[in-house]
């Protein structure tokens, strides 16, 4: 009975925020007053590089110069673009076209579209990884599968692997490229998919609506955030056995690891904050306030991304059309960058 009650509560939370994220563009792009005002002048910084932002409500792709804090290029993209991934040499960025069936690739210098890779009818690609081996990997939620795209800038051969699960949403790929892991929202599972032998995928239930996923650099720990359970999980990547459950903030949509490997961070959409987890002890050591909890419905947080040096974390405040730049050591919001059109997926080069 307790389990049914918890699920009922979770579904109400999910429904509330799903409705919010589905707001029409006119509402989603309404001006927000105060520190997070999307119309506020850009703030310069000594940080170099660029941030790429997918505007999922406006069907846009933008390049934000980190030194000036300005969007220097904005182009029309595909329908409902979501996750982004940059190539190993930082010369291209791949965009998952969640409202369609392609992965589109743009040049990072000027956002000129280079190619569009068709994954087939009803693919609805969402999660995407551009591996150090040069290949792309993407979920195809509408087909309950993932794709391995070999040589995406050349022959672009595609290989599809069924998950057999509903809502195959986000993914992580092993350093070797031999395995991938997916979170499956509808089935409430995590799947291990063998990319070399094509053995049947292994799936286990992990909390309510697992969504965020990240593999440690050494490939020894799989991290998953289950948004409906307000929890993160440490898993054995090969057996999918839960090593530890960690209570986080409310509605953790994403999870990422600091490049140094010492902390995992969840993006807690309903709290407007971040939960910081010690990767050794598995304990939440602090919380970082990014958006005011009182204004959380105007500044819902989605994707999070560390800078390559691990000193800053970028937080997509999707319905405020801003990307918060946060100093990780102090937890202070340094500035808010443009996130035009409902910025969601983000990627960085420095």
TrEMBL record:
It comes from the Bacteria. Pfam families: Lactonase (PF10282). Gene3D superfamilies: YVTN repeat-like/Quinoprotein amine dehydrogenase. PROSITE patterns: PROKAR_LIPOPROTEIN. Residues 1-30 form the signal peptide. Keywords: Signal. This is Beta-propeller fold lactonase family protein.
């Amino acid at each position: 009975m307790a389990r049914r009650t918890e699920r009922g509560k979770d579904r109400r939370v999910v429904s509330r925020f799903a409705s919010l994220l589905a707001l029409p563009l006119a509402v989603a792009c309404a001006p927000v007053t105060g520190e997070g005002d999307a119309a506020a002048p850009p703030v310069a910084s000594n940080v170099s590089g660029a941030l790429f932002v997918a505007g999922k409500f406006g069907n846009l792709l933008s390049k934000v110069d980190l030194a000036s804090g300005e969007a220097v290029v904005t182009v029309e993209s595909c329908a409902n673009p979501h996750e982004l991934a940059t190539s190993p040499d930082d010369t291209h960025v791949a965009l998952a076209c969640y409202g369609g069936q392609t992965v589109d690739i743009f040049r990072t210098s000027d956002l000129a579209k280079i190619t569009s890779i068709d994954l087939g009818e009803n693919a609805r690609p969402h999660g995407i990884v551009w591996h150090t081996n040069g290949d792309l990997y993407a979920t195809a939620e509408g087909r309950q599968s993932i794709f391995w795209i070999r040589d995406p800038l050349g022959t672009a051969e595609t290989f599809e692997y069924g998950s057999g699960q509903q809502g195959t949403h986000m993914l992580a790929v092993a350093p070797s490229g031999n395995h991938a892991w997916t979170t499956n929202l509808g089935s409430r599972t995590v799947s291990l998919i063998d990319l070399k032998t094509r053995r049947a995928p292994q799936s286990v239930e992990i909390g309510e609506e697992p969504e965020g996923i990240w593999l440690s650099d050494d490939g020894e720990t799989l991290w998953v955030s289950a948004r409906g359970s307000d929890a993160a999980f440490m898993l054995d990547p090969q057996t999918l056995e839960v090593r530890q459950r960690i209570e986080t903030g409310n509605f953790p949509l994403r999870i990422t690891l600091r490049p140094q490997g010492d902390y995992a961070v969840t993006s807690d959409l309903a709290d407007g904050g971040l939960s910081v987890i010690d990767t050794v002890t598995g304990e939440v050591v602090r919380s970082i306030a990014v958006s005011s909890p009182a204004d959380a419905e105007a500044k819902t947080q989605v994707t999070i991304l560390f800078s390559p040096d691990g000193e800053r974390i970028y937080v997509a405040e999707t319905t405020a059309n801003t990307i918060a730049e946060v100093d990780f050591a102090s937890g202070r919001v340094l500035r808010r960058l443009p996130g035009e059109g409902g910025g969601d997926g983000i990627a960085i080069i420095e």
